[in-house]
Design brief:
Layout: H1 2-21, E1 24-28, E2 57-60, H2 68-73, H3 76-83, E3 89-92, E4 120-124, E5 129-133, H4 136-149, E6 153-157, H5 177-189, E7 193-194, H6 196-204, H7 209-216, H8 227-242
Parallel strand pairs: 1-2, 1-3, 3-6, 6-7
Antiparallel strand pairs: 4-5
Helix pairs in contact: 4-5
Family: Belongs to the 'GDSL' lipolytic enzyme family.
Protein name: CE12 family carbohydrate esterase
Domain SGNH hydrolase-type esterase: 28-231
Length: 254
């Protein structure tokens, strides 16, 4: 009886230790990744079920309305860094909200276009403080630098495409600077990159624009996906991760 009890205790401790050592995947993004509006959904929630829960824990920290800049400035990125441990993973998909004005009175979330070191000092109407705004590429590089310091594996993803207004040519991505800039930063920093935009558009090439709109998007706009669109994009995320070399994260997929 004593031996059986000892074995049960050992098994319990062993399972607890395994759970503690299990890596976490943190997802960073905007409303195309996580969306609370009725009828809309981002790919960050359905992608969770594509991972083996026995191998990895997945946390979707994306939030609507954020840009590469405001996700950092609001302290959301810092919370992830504090909660992370060496060996964890991070997926970053930003860009849909980076194109707005730098000092818009309602949101003030835009970043400077491009990947350079340009800056602009503004009076932030939201925080009521001066702020030095950087380029989209600069903010992506900060995610990379911070992740490396914490010994995390970071994967940059290009933004998902908007609903096409014309037939899609196979092998072409949406014409967006943010798609190219995301890839440029990933290559320069030598971090894994998933051209999610291209993967999704490749699927769209088999359909007419009206069919894409009806099946994968909402009536509200051409940016936010329906649950079916979120599932489609999540599958493309998994496809992109599986194609990466020397990235152990793909071993955690079902």
């Amino acid at each position: 009886m004593l031996l059986l009890r000892s074995l049960l205790v050992a098994l319990f401790i062993g399972s607890f230790a395994s759970a503690a050592e299990k890596p976490t995947l943190f997802i960073v993004g905007d409303s195309t990744v996580r969306n609370g509006t009725k009828g809309q959904q981002g790919w960050g929630d359905p992608v969770i079920k594509l991972f083996d829960a026995d191998k990895i824990k997945v946390e979707n920290h994306a939030i609507g309305g954020r840009s590469s800049r405001t996700f950092i400035n609001e302290g959301r990125w810092e919370k992830i860094l504090k909660a992370s441990k060496p060996g964890d993973f991070v997926l970053v998909q930003m860009g849909h909200n980076d194109g707005g004005p730098l000092d818009d009175a309602a949101r003030a979330r835009g970043s400077i276009r491009g990947v350079g070191e340009e800056t602009k000092e503004i009076d932030n109407p939201i925080t009521k403080q001066k702020e030095v705004v950087h380029t989209y590429g600069w903010y992506l590089r900060k995610y990379v630098t911070d992740a490396r310091e914490k010994k995390l594996t970071i994967v940059i993803l290009s933004p998902i495409p908007h609903c096409p207004q014309k037939p899609v040519e196979k092998g072409t991505a949406e014409k967006s600077g943010y798609v190219g800039w995301a890839e440029e930063v990933a290559k320069a920093e030598k971090v894994p990159f998933v051209n999610l935009n291209l993967l999704v558009m490749t699927h769209y090439a088999e359909m007419k624009p009206a069919e894409i709109k009806e099946k994968y998007f909402t009536t509200a706009d051409n940016t936010h996906t329906s649950p079916a669109g979120a599932e489609r994009n999540a599958a493309c995320v998994a496809e992109g991760l599986k194609a990466l070399k020397d990235v152990p994260l793909k071993e955690c997929l079902k």
